[in-house]
Amino acid sequence: MERESVQEKQYLFDKPKNVRRLFRLYYAVLALLLLAEFGVDHHAIFPWEEWPGFYAVFGFVACVALVLAAKYVLRPLVMRREDYYG
Amino acid sequence: MGEPIAPFLLFFCGGLLAWALPPKARRILLVLVPVVGLWNLSGLGSGAHWHVSFMDYTLTMMRVDKLSLIFGYIFHIAAFIGFIYAFHLDDRVEQIAIMIHVGSALGIVFAGDLVTLFIFWEVLSIASVFIIWARRRPEATRAGFRYLLVHAAGGLFLLGGIVLRASEVGSIDFVHMELADLATFLIFMGFGINCAWPGLHAWLTDAYPESTVTGTVFLSAFTTKAAVYALARGFAGTGALIWVGALMTAFPIFYAVIENDLRRVLSYSLINQVGFMVCGIGIGTPLALNGAISHAFNDILFKALLFMAMGAVMYRTGRIHATDLGGLYRTMPLTCVFCMVGAASISAFPLFSAFVSKSMVMEAAALGNMRIVWFILLFASAGVFHHAGIKIPYFAFFSHDSGLRPKEAPLHMLIAMGIAAFLCVFIGCAPGYLYSLLPYEVGYVPYTWPHVLGQSQLLFFSSLAFTLLILSGIYPAEMRAVNLDADWFYRKGALALYRGAQITIGAVGWLSSKVVVGGLVRGLASYLREGPAKTTIALLYPAWLVEGTGGSEIGERKKRVRLAMEKGAGPVGIGAAAAIFLLLLLFLAS
User: Fold this and answer.
1) B322 interfacial to chain A (CB closer than 8 Å)
2) Distance from CA of B371 to the nearest CA of A (A)
């Protein structure tokens, strides 16, 4: 393991252009997934599975709620210094 | 031909043989044993073998059916991949402990009776402890002891239950049980401890991240899955398991979000995945059981893959905390790709393994109209992608540049990860082979448009949440810290108990030293030494006063009496008079 500092090789995501490309592709996939909804015939078990974008909204909201709860509720309750157990 | 070869025997014998071999031959042997075992397994027909009489009972050390076989297969595959991954290892103790560990896990899944099960159950725990200790660091030693204590307690539950059941039912056969009395409840709890149920789970997140690079890969595969097998065999359809499982899928993901040690993050997600299996076993329909068992099969592969990837990072950099890592895709691209395959598999992306197994459990919950459970499972599905699917690869291989430029993982590790990654994708793309191994007929079709689209939406928009939270800076920064969990109760609780005991016992000691040693004993000693002289002086004093003896003369006489008593030179008459007086008292009193 070495630490190189000067004139290091440029890697894939060191170039902002590549990062931008990745993000563009990512947003395109997101849009596509929402659009694809209209071409698919639902035969779900629960009625709410047929709501347009149910899974997308649920996934997004669930994860935001998860992170906020973990950060603002759980962490203040359980976080201790690294040497807590000695 | 006589009895077939019991799968555990190959590993136990392999372990013994490995002890005697030089390092190079030992490594080759370790990789070969699972191959031979797999070949042995493929020739086994259903049935019970190896009957051994034990007191009034008959042990069935080997029962082969579809349920035990599928676990047998995956345990062999996991051992094979794991030993390739551990090919650099030159620690005889760890290698042999792993062999015993794998062997006893196989012993459990092929045990036809509860006593055999119990014996292997205990051996499994002890072997695990040695694997944890193989790290040879104080934290690992302490975690190993805690592991031992928890599992010893679990073993006692199991033993108590088995003994009670044997005396009540008169049979020790390991078959389906109704959770109805104390005996079955104790067995149920014994299984639950190894299965890492909520509240009983802390041994896992405590010990697994403390083990070696290679040890954790093995630990993650066998203990919990053997317990899943035991539940599937003994308690399928037990309603309580539905809620236990649902809870298991949900609570660890909150911890995983704030945890810094990436192998501990994986340990939390291990509990989360086992939750899906436990829930499926609780639902108990053929679809749910198929889902639970196939998910156990898949989980062993992708969880091992993720632990291998993190192990490779640790092996190369010596670090495992998210705060110390980042940007490793630059020099460990293959490990990074394998890690992402594992991440996609655990997240149940279409074409990856969990997609074809976890969905069976969810479908079974939906068909049973279990709305709340279904929502919890869906939440956990989004959450697992969030913490295991994105967090692990992101913080290790991308995120900020840690400046570390480690070498790519060694070849044997890459091969092991490559095999696991291949299997994850293969099962995801062609689930038919896995389905054909399942104990029940599979009518489930994973690849329908609504399922593919729904799951893709769920995962991609979960990742959108992650992306936006990271970009906005709301995502909780990784911190060097300890997060309290259920192990607090015995880590701090035991200390409090010890301190409490110290204070109570100390107080009793202090009191007894004051009262007995300082008071009674000293009083008795001084009475015995000075009592006769003092009594005599007290008796004579009035006589001296009457005589009109002077102050200085009295002092002189007291001295003489003391001297006489010390030397035992008092007139005999006084002693005799005292004795007669005493006898007279006794006589009058009676």
Assistant:
1) no
2) 9
**In chain B, pLDDT over 70 holds for what percent of residues?**
99
| Chain A residues closer than 8 Å to B459 by CB | 59
B82 CA to centre of own chain? 20
List pLDDT tens digits, range B120-139. Answer: 999 999 999 999 999 999 99
Nearest by CB: B258 against A30, A36, A70: A70
pLDDT for residue B458 is more than 80: yes
Chain B residue numbers with beta carbons less than 8 Å from the beta carbon of A48 are: none
**What's the pLDDT tens digit per position in B145-162?**
999 999 999 999 999 999
Return the residue matching tokens 């899974």. Answer: A55
Question: Nearest Cα to B173, choosing from B58, B66, B71, B47?
Answer: B58
B483 CB within 8 Å of a chain A CB: yes
Q: At which residue do the structure tokens 């392999």 appear?
A: B14
Q: Is the pLDDT of residue B571 over 80?
A: no
- Concatenating the DSSP letter of every residue in B277-332 gives HHHHHHH-SHHHHHHHHHHHHHHHHHHHHHHHHHHHHHHHHS--BGGG---GGGT-
User: Using CB atoms, which residue from A29, A67, A78 is nearest to B469?
Assistant: A67
Point out which residues pair with A2 in neighbouring strands: B405
Residues of A in contact with B363 (CB under 8 A): 45
The two structure tokens encoding residue B308: 């291998």
pLDDT, one tens digit per residue, over B401-445 is 888 899 999 999 999 999 999 999 999 999 999 999 999 999 899
Strands (E) across B352-494 are located at 482-483
Nearest C-alpha neighbor of B84 from the set B130, B12, B32:
B32
Q: Is B254 on the interface with A (CB under 8 A)?
A: yes
Radius of gyration of chain B (CA): 35
Cβ of residue B317 closer than 8 Å to a chain A Cβ: yes
Q: Is A62 in Cβ contact with B383 (below 8 Å)?
A: yes
Residue B469 has pLDDT above 80, yes or no: yes
Q: Which of 408-447 (B) contact A at CB < 8 A? A: none
Is B316 near chain A, with CB under 8 Å?
A: yes
Residues 45-74 (A) with a CB less than 8 A from some CB of B: 45-46, 49, 53-64, 66-71, 74
Sign of CA dihedral B326, B327, B329, B331: negative
Return the minimum-mean-pLDDT range out of B356-370, B374-388, B509-523. B509-523
Task: Report the phi/psi class of residue B479: left, alpha or beta, with left for phi > 0 and alpha for psi in -120 to 50.
Answer: beta
Burial of residue B574 (CB within 10 Å: 0-12, 13-18, 19+) is middle
pTM above 0.90, yes or no: no
What is the per-residue pLDDT across B37-90, written as a single tens digit (0 to 9) for each? 999 999 888 888 888 888 888 898 999 999 999 999 999 999 999 999 999 999
**According to DSSP H, which parts of B195-239 are helical?**
202-207, 213-234
Q: Is B506 left (phi over 0), alpha (psi -120 to 50) or beta?
A: alpha
Among B254, B403, B475, the residue with its CB nearest the CB of A3 is: B403
Higher pLDDT among residues B506 and B572, named by residue: B506
C-beta separation of B214 from B31 below 8 A: no
CB contact under 8 A, A74 and B254: yes
Main-chain phi, psi angles of B349, to 5 degrees: -65, 145
**What interface predicted TM-score (ipTM) does this complex get?**
0.87
Contact between B389 and B354 under an 8 Å Cβ cutoff? The reply is no
